[in-house]
Amino acid sequence: MSAFEYASPLSVEEVISVLSRHSEARPLAGGQKLLLDRNRDRLKGAVLVDLGRIASLKGIDRQDGGLRIGATTTFRMIASSDLVGKEFPVLAEAVGTIGDTQLRNRGTIGGNIAERDPEYDLPALLLVLDASIEVAGRRGSRNISADKFFTDRDDSALKRDEFIVSILIPLATANSAMAYVKSKHPARLTAVCGVAAALTVNHGRVMAAKIAVTGAADHPIRLSAVETALLNGPADHEQIDAVAAAADKGIGFRGDAFASAEYRSHLTRVLTGRALKQTLSQSTA
């Protein structure tokens, strides 16, 4: 690996100071992506800013009618959290399937979403949860909605001197349920395609719908056409089959050595149907 500098600040203010002074500074959370990166030469001359010693960046607690998850909170902590398990069981379950045991013990939620990898699971879940990402920098702190944060992989919502502090998730409304299903890559254990769905059902009709897909395109996408088609319609399998059949419309699917664009298009239709039916079964139980 090429030589780089290392900093281990003890406060958010110290992190901001380092990021402001060094144009090549990069926040380091769990470090799992770094360890697997084949192109480590890109770190030549960089300053790695380790966030692991800042207590305020780790942990899960209630805040403003929802949950706040610190950026350096590990996947294992999220999967085993009583708070997350009670309020967002699908998030706990999904995080418990990320990678392998070693990755879940070291990988962090902040590092995961900052990498903006198109195959990661969390972006789709955060999109349907209406989450926001709290970031800090020399201009102060601000919240970025997941819809704004996960846009184009090459167009980061983070400014150069900013880093993720926490993820804020509002509590779900009454009569709502959520599911996440995915097709997992056998080697990387990431999502070849994953679909998260949330429905609010009242008196047999869909009052609110949120669906997002990850892994299929260059960045996670809300399936707004599917959401619109479901809204105010009957909450039944026939309606779900109809909208899922068109879930791949208007998406620029990506292809690689493992899965073609056509296959990811097929998976989007199939997994959208499965996720919605799982959600429906929970909301009507």
Helix-strand topology string: EHEHEEEHHHHHHEEHEEEEEHHH
CATH architecture of the largest domain: 2-Layer Sandwich
- Quote the CATH topology of the largest domain: Uridine Diphospho-n-acetylenolpyruvylglucosamine Reductase, domain 3
Number of helices: 12
Name of the top-level CATH class of the largest domain = Alpha Beta
Instruction: Note the overall shape.
Output: globular
Rg estimate, integer Å: 19 Å
Distance between the termini: 54 Å
In spatial order, strands of the major sheet run 4-5-8-6-7
Domain module count: 3
How many strands, what sense, and barrel or not for the largest sheet?
A: 5 strands, antiparallel
Strand runs, count: 12
Helix content: 25-40%
Mean pLDDT across every amino acid position:
90
Which band does the percent of strand residues land in?
A: 25-35%
Label the structural class: alpha+beta
User: Which stretches are poorly predicted, pLDDT < 50 over at least 5 residues?
Assistant: none
Describe this structure in words.
- The chain is of the alpha+beta class.
- The protein folds into three domains: 46 residues; 116 residues, Uridine Diphospho-n-acetylenolpyruvylglucosamine Reductase, domain 3, CATH 3.30.465.10; 108 residues, Enolase-like, domain 1, CATH 3.30.390.50.
- 34% of the residues lie in helices and 26% in strands.
- It is built from twelve helices and twelve strands.
- The strands form three sheets. The protein has a five-stranded antiparallel sheet. A four-stranded antiparallel sheet has the order 9-10-11-12, with helices on both faces.
